Amino acid sequence: MTHENALRAQPPAGSSDPAGPRAHRRRRRAIAAILVLRRGWVLMSERATFGAELRRLRRAAGISLTEFAARTHYSKGYLSKVETGLAVPNAAFAEACERELQLSGALTALLPREPAKRRTRPDARPSGLPPATTVFTGRAAEFQAVRSALEADGGVCVISGMGGIGKTELAKRIAHRLEAGFADGCVFLDLRGHSPGETADEPSAVHDRLLRRLGVPATRIPSDPHDRAMVYQSRLRGRSLLLVLDNAASAAQVRPLLPAEPKCRVLITSRSRLSSLDDTRHVALDVLDTPSAVDLFVSLTGTAPGEVVTRVVERCAGLPLAIRIAAARLSAHPTWTVDELDRRLAAEAERLGELDDGERSLLAAFRLSLRQLSPAEARLFGLLALHPGADLDLHAATALSALPARETDRLLNRLHDAYLLTQPAPDRYGFHDLLKLFAADVVTERDGAFRRLMDFAVQVAAHGDHLLTSRRFVRKRIFGEHPPEPMPLDDETALSWFRAEWRGLVSLCRAAGERGEHERCWQLAYFLRGFFFTAKLWDPWKATHRWARASAQALGDRWVLATTTTNLGVALVDSGDVEAAFACYDEALTLYRELGDEHGESMALAHRAWADHYSGKHTEALRDFQHAQAFYARTGNRRNAAITDRGIALVLIPLGRAPEAAALAASTLTTFNELGLDLDAAMALNCLGWAWFHAGHHDRATTAYHDAADRARACGSSYETARAYTGIGNIAAARGEHALAADFWERADDVHPDLNPLMVGETRVRWGS
Predict the structure, then answer these.
(1) CATH code at 22-110
(2) Which of 170, 313, 343, 365 could be 163's S-S partner, Cβ–Cβ 3.0 to 4.6 Å?
(3) Residue range 373-444, CATH number
(4) In this structure, is the dihedral angle defined by the CA atoms of residues 523, 524, 527 and 532, taken in order, positive or negative?
(5) What ranges make up the beta strands (E) of 376-430?
(6) Contact yes or no for 296/302 (Cβ under 8 A)
(7) 299-308: per-residue pLDDT in tens?
């Protein structure tokens, strides 16, 4: 008779057992003990078999226990116990090991038939983790951060991020890894914070669901919310439980669900930051970097990585949900190639509609995020998409919202907390690329808000340009009945504002032209010109003025066309494209003469003189400079007269009149100092140094160049600073001080590399050309 049968056997009715009932009970207990030992030996044997095979395979692959722990995200101690048969492996652990060892089923087949059950109390052990996806890339740093948070005292961690970023998948993956370390298992609960067609669960309702999962009969769950919360906390006392609260709507929803039991741990996911949860570790998920995004797409589709795949994941903006949908669409259409998928995603207007595989939709995911906003927040979310730049500041957002700055700031913070805005810098906000496409579709008050933004941009740019290039001729601007609120700037903050905003202003200039706001288009280009000259940003300078020319033509305003064309010529000359500049100046001169605008004609002649000078036509240049100078002297325009004299000084040098040029340059310096024109003063000092260098007075030239460098640094001109350093290096080289020359030339390269020899005489001397 087997031990099991012997255990079940009972003495026949009416028979007598010589040893009596007590002996029979002792025999049953002995047999039961044998069975327990036997089953334990079988289970230990199965564990040992699994662990021994794992150890053999790991060592054969040349992977240390420490490295294997890092790869699988299981602790080194747990791995050691599994390999020695002291810990129970589960299916998730086996799968992780097989993936790292590039096996298929070899370890899963060795899993123990009866997992050991550690208990802290006789209640039912809850479980129910949903399966984790088999394809998962990146997130190693975030995985470790969450794991560290859950292992620390308190053990509460929030994974937050925008919709579709992969919060739930990461949480499930971590929970599967950690579940074996909790004696009472794991509970996974969707709080329905952002679920289609549902409202977020109230804490009381969640308490009810949790208590049922913990084995509490419905009849014993109190109806009063406070009593129910107390029962919930009491049922967790003494337990070791991992609680995963997915899809949380707010900190208020989550706070009553946090266990008081220190052996319990809580992992929360949310589209909000839940920053008011104290003593909680927060891990924010960002989009995948390009290599991880490509790896995810390739793993899902089996395609080979390449340029087109990279372009597809970039069109998905690194958002895991978008990449998974795109991969699903490709897999569902056997006739499609990756090129066809890329073609369908290319058009921004159609992209969100294409990212829909029938069951998952990016539009639907974004609409759920929008649903959590107040009307004021949703309105601002849409309005911000009207700004075509990569990001914007509070002032621009306030112009769009037409609300007080404080209220706009509050709404911006709320949108950022909801992961509907990014914050690339402390005072700037932006969009994820796909969210911006979505926001552009939900905005309702387009034209009025865009005009407010353009009015603001032109007004501040005009003010900043005035501070950078005071006394420049400016045509009157019209802002309508309600001009935007002025933004305070001074000489320092004006330059900082342009440096921070110029990319967005360039985008606005282009958008204004495309939307038919032609007045604002040319005006914005006009007021960017001074900063572009200072910073030597030639490409955006030329681009904005070409758009402004198109706007001037659309307006039929010949003065605007002539002025914009002249300023485009300056950009072309300054960047070395002298021939194209001549064409601009000839066109502008014709227009000014037709208009009878002597000021404009003189300005165009003076600019054309610079082009003649750089082309080696010094006599022609001197003639045009002198023509313009006569007009400026007659009209009392001291600024333009001094600028023209500086040009004349530069022309006199190649004509063999260097001492005369030095005297003229020095006289312009006096005027620029009196007018407070620091950049022009720095340019005059460089001109003076250049004249004294050619006159053979190296000491005077060195002094002038050093003064030029100081003034140029003070006003933020790296170009004039580099020019001054190059001049000092030339003088040192002429004196045979080659180490000193090399030092100053290196400084010039560090400040502003690649000064054009066509435009900068000092550079021609340096390179002997």
Answers:
(1) 1.10.260.40
(2) 365
(3) 1.10.10.10
(4) negative
(5) 391-393, 422-425, 428-430
(6) no
(7) 999 999 999 9
